[in-house]
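Example with several molecule types.
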Amino acid sequence: MRDRRPEGERLSRATAHRLSLYLRALAVWPADGGRMSSTRIALACGVTDAQVRRDLASLGHLGRRGLGYDAPELSAAIRAVLGIDRVWRAVLVGVGNLARALLRYRGFRTQGFEVLALFDADPTKVGERVEGLAIEPTERLTDRVRDLGAELAILTVPADAAQPVADQLTAAGIRGVLNFAPVLLRLPPRVKLVSVDLAIQLEQLAFLIQHGEPAADPAAR
Amino acid sequence: MRDRRPEGERLSRATAHRLSLYLRALAVWPADGGRMSSTRIALACGVTDAQVRRDLASLGHLGRRGLGYDAPELSAAIRAVLGIDRVWRAVLVGVGNLARALLRYRGFRTQGFEVLALFDADPTKVGERVEGLAIEPTERLTDRVRDLGAELAILTVPADAAQPVADQLTAAGIRGVLNFAPVLLRLPPRVKLVSVDLAIQLEQLAFLIQHGEPAADPAAR
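Resulting structure tokens for the full complex:
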């Protein structure tokens, strides 16, 4: 029995990010008799105890004073709020080393993301099977996204190909793009975008060292 | 002549992240006669014009009303604040597909990050050359980090190997870790950490779609 948060109430992006971290902590840390304390979650995620309690309170009345949280119940509540209490149908475009690394990463499926098709512009790659999927030509991207009812796209194409492919995906009705190409994509507001620019991550690290920010952030911000 | 910001004045992590984005915009967008308007930067980065002007004002008096910013001068000022107006010596541990993709990504070098050595625990990989570097055994990690004076480490090892390797790096005096293993690392405060958990990025995307947050964020947060 998990409480869904009332409609309209908005969760901030920062809170959503912390909830993702709490989910990791709940998954990897052994809970005593299925229970987990806010202190232990805070410790694992590098945030304050008060912050954890505040964030989790926004999910509904899950904690019991002195008893902590029921780990499975809490995980379910977080997954519901994040929208991963379901399977998201995804496609991947650009099957290079990064894509092969991502496809091998079991974290995706366990978190509710299923990659249904792979695409690449290089004709010599078409037909090759990677992690059980045959690479298809990028020309078929639009039709396939529609046929598969894919909602998410993972973009691991070279920088110069990213915007045209993103435009194709937008035309096909994709709802979200996870972009690894080091470019600033322009997409209509209805298509959500999360970009992972690896140089930016390194710059953030340099900044942290340079400015000696005390709190070490356990995950990409 | 760029203004360095006064000592002590602290830049927030969020601001630093936006500055990284502005740097991308400055690099990829053709500036008219070397000048760039805050409006154009805002457009490219998906933030408001006012936000750009506020962030850039904190770097010193770079903009001229009606004339916009001198692109090279602005880039230099941002790089100085982020601490990438120098070369960061880095090592990489765990030479799988992700590592190969990262090593091929020229963005690192151009942004001032130089990978000096590669390490892997798999003896069959030791000696193999990747992007001009020979893979070394992980046993030599501590000594080599000291000898090379490496400050940053890119961690692309499997989840279960991440903490032990991070501890080795900490012992070797590394200053920062860019972690791609899907685990919450525990490091002393003096070692800065930026983690890129790909499942978390997908969860953030699912959250954005689910909650229809209006502003599409152009880069990982």
